[in-house]
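Form 7-S
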Amino acid sequence: MRRGWQLRIPMNSTALALQTVPLSPHGLAMALFAALVFAVLIWDRWPVATVSLVVLSVIPLGFVLAPLAGPDGPVDPARFFAGFGHPALIAICALMVLGHALVVTGALEPAARRLSTWVTQRPRLALLAVLVGAAGVSGLINDTPVVVLLIPLILAAAARARVAAGAMLLPMNYAVLIGGMATTIGTSTNLIVVALAAGLGVTGLGMFSFTGIVAMAAVPALTYLWLVAPRLLAHVQPRAEQLSEQVFDAELRITEGSRFEGQTLGEAFGASGNRLQLVQLQRNALAIVKLPSVTLRAGDRLVVQGTARDLKDLEATLDASLHNLHDGADKQKAEGAGESPAQQEDDAEDAGPAEAIPSAVVAQLVVVNESPLVRRTVRQERLAERFGVVVVGLRPRSKPGGWERQSLVDRVVRGGDILLLQGKQEDIARVQREGYGLLLDARYMLPRQDKAWVALAVMAAVVLLAATKTLPIALAALAGVIALLLARCLSWDDVAQSLSVKVILLVASSLALGDALSVTGATAWAAQQLAATAGALGPTWLLVLLMGLMGLLTNFVSNNAAAAIGTPLGVALAQSLGVDAEPFVLAVLFGCNLCYLTPMGYQTNLLVMNAGDYRFADFLRVGGPLFLIMWAGLSLGLVHQYGLQ
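Output:
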């Protein structure tokens, strides 16, 4: 039992005798401070990181100014900084890095393309499939790896579909948490509650003993997440990316052996998710009618317009080439051989695929009036040969009256035009240093496709190790990060970019706050107040209140701490009332999984908070109604199954 309260159960009486201990001054102070912190976070006027830093400063300072004597001596104020080394924080940081690896390698691009098409064409059905699938899988696999796998997939699909990922990420996370409570292996909290209950003599809980109760409660909950939650999250918008909003002129060439060679133009439109903005279809330097039934041939040019991301997506989807690497060198060779201009152009195009030059970035360069490119063409300046960069798109300073029929590398460049360059960062920077233009800040990092299989293999290994309980999730994820670094899937810059200071401070401060509430007896006192009502309430209402109390506690202290407090309490309450202890144990188990109200309620909440750029109040706005729906549904299920009155 926790310090500050004791339970004494008479063997021949249904009354619960309590030896109560009043709330200590330290406990009262911490309860008031926790309420104040919660109110400030909901108020949302100060950044979460600032509030978290204040919490990490005030709590230790309070124990320095007003020392607390514990069972093992004075409470050390430095213990409240232990959250920075807590396994939960290590797991969260490592999982953020693993998720980022799937993004930078483009490992989930094929799945993201399919999901984005579905999101664009049938957004409601796509969300329903994500919710049902996530809830179903998380009952058999630990919920954290499920969320880690789905976050980058949803982010990529939403970016392609030009919709806010925020409308899907938080509902997906809650669906995973709902599914995770359906079996004994769904979460580590479930395992702890079942193990503690078995030690107290409650041994009848099997793996699927309570799956039916959760399934019944999940129906209205998932319906709410499907139809209502996205409306509550409508204000969460995708992060603005200046580069992705700029539309460039470009050319896609169907190459020999392309997947779409011999396919119709309509099929190409469908494969691109109808995002192919085709201006002109050219064959043998002649424009042909853009009918959906036209069959594509090797050498056809698709003159298109799109953002940097869309152009690179189309290049991969259509198995086409966006540019010609040997624009200058091959023309010179052709001239020396006496070839015609048409032959020169065709020979230059056939020189090789885009991947001949290692590339990492697509960036935009504004051509200045003093640039050597002004009134010249890209072919004449031989940018690919001299700098190792290629022009994949052009945005004219002012739109001409009609489409310029010259090939992209043969269009005359003017001051103020924006070129879309692809290449290594250092090579693109060299173009700027040579005075060709000014680089804008917005850049699009190209996926490192050659490392995609490594990222997928590492993630699969981490999921397998965590799901089978071979290794703790923190250790498995940390080993995965090391493997990615050794395989050069990630650089240390990528690692730093994937971590969130806001999340790190929030985890550390919430652990400190939960520890302070426990060590001062505030959480135990709250449980004591519930136990004191046992004589006045019947089993049904006591069970409902027990679940609600555990649900509130788990949003402020760790799930495992709430389980350690609630499981013995639930068994003791059942014995005092002379009823079966199993429904009371399940009330504790369900309550410890109702961590929907705060981002620090569970580690997956923090992962989606970082990915979806949510605010603290978003969790209360969406999680509050979900908490009530699940609380009511699970309570009714327990009462019905166990015949309580």
